[in-house]
């Protein structure tokens, strides 16, 4: 048997937490979205961009043993340490390709798979079944283990769960409509995220060297196919990744050089990065921006100005 | 693995957007140079002995030495003007039998992966080339270099091989003699070959020096880590602990009577 390749269903909107009987609420694990194809004798871990993650996570090689019958499960791949998932750790794991470092990190920062959905069971496509039926099938077919667990959910009490996740310094919650069907590859409002910090994706268009081996990244987003300047964020850890991925340097892509960018080296918009921040300022800038990391699953051209405003 | 190149195969009127991924990775351990006393990373400074000062990148120009101590200067603008137009299209020039390309021309391999909606055109090209037993000779620009390519069909995908230009190949510096061999000697050699023949199993071969090096480094790292393992927080050791704890604390505060349905 060979499973068809699925695209994960995507969260369509972000809003403040709410209580509603028609929804279930789950903890949002801060990791990497991943579909696990559990065959009889092996597993294939595939990310949103259809890249295989198997070689990056040798510790999950036996994940297929957790399934009673072959199935495709949807979930979050994350590194759980000190009581929460550590996004920087899982990010480093996905960016590492040296097998020796992978071996090291698989022991020091082992990844776990938190499953929250099931798309196919023994060849039968489940996407047309409502969420709560899929949840039951998931629970029935997956045995938990140190590398694999099933996402817990609660009904109705979205606000209370949101408050608890704040206490635990977690990212937030996801609300899902109980009756919702699984729509592969679709960004739908059946799934809603409620987060403590805002987040936005930008095209990385340049960098400015700073003291102590730090860099400022110059950020931009597309508006009518044209790049618009969106400010800076400081970056430390992913420098090697940045330099390994720079295609070429180019002249400043903006018609007017924005202030504070006199020392910038401009690069072709090829990389996409995520920034976390407290809130938007009145002028549309970000308050206390922190660089979260590069996104391999998104293209710069998908970083749109109007999407940023929707948050 | 990151995309090494993005482009599109162009073949007559057909245009197939693809991404190239590397087929190999460097697995050798690399070391950093450190100061013996402080373990600080060694830094390089560019220095002019004549001015006795450190040079910044804007103080440096490119020169070609045509005679001892004599240079012609080429500015970046001058070099830029000579570069080929950045055409990322992989232009198929012609098709040929694989046997027509001498192995010496092959440099690097890439997996070519079709972009969304290009799968069918890609499969058509792969299958047609495979059934005709041909490879495509093509040109493109990778980075800033105009590159010659061979597109080779395999059972799964199209492998893109970069080719050396003829001017990059050097001929064997010595002439090999071909002394006469008599039949008995040849048969004996062939027998030896037959007795030593078996399938090639690449997984049985490893760089053993690298392996010993990795093990030695790993032992040192593990030694370091034992010293740091005590400062972990112990509540919620696993995601299950965390999820169960949150779920239970919500259930504990839930009022006994069923709440009114809340609309938002």
Automatic annotation (TrEMBL), chain A:
Reactions accelerated catalytically: ATP + (deoxyribonucleotide)n-3'-hydroxyl + 5'-phospho-(deoxyribonucleotide)m = (deoxyribonucleotide)n+m + AMP + diphosphate
E.C. designation(s): 6.5.1.1
Molecular function terms from GO: ATP binding; DNA ligase (ATP) activity
Broadest EC class assigned to this enzyme: ligase
GO biological process: DNA recombination; DNA repair
UniProt domain ATP-dependent DNA ligase family profile: residue ranges: 104-195
Pfam families linked: DNA_ligase_A_C (PF04679), DNA_ligase_A_M (PF01068)
UniProt xrefs under CDD domains: Adenylation_DNA_ligase_LigD_LigC, OBF_DNA_ligase_LigD
Keyword terms, alphabetized: Ligase
InterPro entries the UniProt entry points to: ATP-dep_DNA_ligase, DNA_ligase_ATP-dep_C, DNA_ligase_ATP-dep_cent, LigD_ligase_dom, NA-bd_OB-fold
Family: Belongs to the ATP-dependent DNA ligase family.
Name of the protein: DNA ligase (ATP)
Species, as recorded: Longicatena caecimuris
TrEMBL record, chain B:
Name of the protein in its database record: Non-homologous end joining protein Ku
Stored InterPro entries: DNA_bd_Ku70/Ku80, Prok_Ku, SPOC-like_C_dom_sf
Alphabetical UniProt keywords: DNA damage, DNA recombination, DNA repair, DNA-binding
A Pfam family of this chain: Ku
Quaternary data: Homodimer. Interacts with LigD.
Protein family according to the UniProt entry: Belongs to the prokaryotic Ku family.
Residue ranges annotated for the Ku domain, each copy included: 52-180
Gene Ontology annotations of biological process type: DNA recombination; double-strand break repair via nonhomologous end joining
Functional note: With LigD forms a non-homologous end joining (NHEJ) DNA repair enzyme, which repairs dsDNA breaks with reduced fidelity. Binds linear dsDNA with 5'- and 3'- overhangs but not closed circular dsDNA nor ssDNA. Recruits and stimulates the ligase activity of LigD.
Bilayer-spanning residue ranges: none
GO MF terms, alphabetically ordered: double-stranded DNA binding
UniProt superkingdom: Bacteria
